Backbone:
């Protein structure tokens, strides 16, 4: 207990010293392989919001992206050892929770688990005929091997093909190696349109969506409790004062409008890696609250 108390006092003293000195702390976040990869932008903005909300007591801090792209395995190793990355974001996985510290506030209101599909347009009539999970099991999805989505899809009986890289998923989908690429509801329009010249037959499917509870949490190293507490305090304050929702709406409202979820058949899947979700009824934290979503199986 004495040792724990000493560590806590050191962390508090460090935070107070940083605040008093006014020296800016850099908080390092990963970058994508492709400079145009938009998926890394929003988490950095949300991280910066959390840091700004705590600057009065913890001192100024700036979220910056790493100077070089890294694989997920490398990012996790760098965080774990206190290396080149301080913070990343992942859905909660039991294996990862044994190595890293999750900050249990979803940064995207759960929309990572609301999935709509990128398909080849010639398959559109076949997808329009899908009404249930059993129907969907006759079609194959494409995902990366180390994504949690792959485990979720397979555990629900959906066949999955795993190309070795993100960009190759689009290439192999266009080549007919699998039938669809399930994406978070905020992602597919911004992925299909920049690739229209290369893959003119790819489109966003219009009739279906998958739902599985999959929060998207910031993670830090197990020993970096001061940063974990700071980010959690900052996110809670942003939720309370409305700035979290303002950032979410600015980033995703147009994609959600285009997705027209109310007009889609929603097929519910189970997430075998998720035991519980904090605040499942809080509509400030979820687009589709997980507690309510338990009742969804397939709806029009």
Residues:
């Amino acid at each position: 207990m004495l040792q724990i108390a000493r560590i806590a006092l050191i962390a508090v003293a460090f935070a107070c010293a940083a605040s008093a000195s006014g020296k800016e702390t850099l908080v390092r976040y990963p970058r994508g392989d492709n400079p145009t990869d938009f998926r890394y932008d929003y988490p950095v903005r949300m991280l910066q919001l959390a840091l700004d909300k705590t600057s009065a007591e913890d001192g100024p801090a700036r979220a910056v992206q790493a100077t070089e792209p890294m694989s997920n395995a490398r990012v996790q190793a760098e965080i774990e050892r206190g290396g080149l990355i301080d913070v990343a974001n992942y859905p909660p996985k039991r294996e990862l929770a044994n190595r890293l510290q999750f900050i249990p506030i979803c940064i995207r209101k759960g929309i990572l688990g609301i999935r709509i599909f990128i398909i080849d347009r010639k398959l559109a009539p076949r997808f329009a005929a899908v009404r249930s999970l059993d129907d969907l099991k006759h079609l194959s999805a494409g995902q990366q091997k180390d994504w949690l989505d792959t485990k979720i899809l397979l555990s629900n009986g959906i066949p999955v093909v795993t190309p070795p890289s993100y960009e190759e998923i689009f290439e192999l989908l266009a080549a007919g190696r699998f039938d669809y690429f399930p994406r978070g509801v905020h992602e597919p329009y911004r992925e299909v349109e920049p690739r229209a010249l290369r893959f003119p037959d790819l489109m966003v499917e219009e009739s279906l969506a998958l739902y599985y509870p999959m929060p998207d949490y910031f993670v830090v190293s197990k020993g970096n409790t001061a940063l974990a507490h700071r980010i959690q305090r900052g996110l809670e304050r942003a939720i309370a004062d409305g700035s979290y929702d303002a950032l979410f709406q600015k980033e995703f409202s147009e994609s959600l409008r285009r997705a027209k979820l109310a007009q889609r058949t929603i097929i519910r899947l189970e997430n075998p890696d998720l035991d519980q979700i904090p605040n499942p009824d809080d509509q400030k934290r979820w687009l589709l609250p997980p507690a309510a979503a338990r009742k969804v199986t397939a709806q029009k």
Summary: The chain has a mean pLDDT of 88.
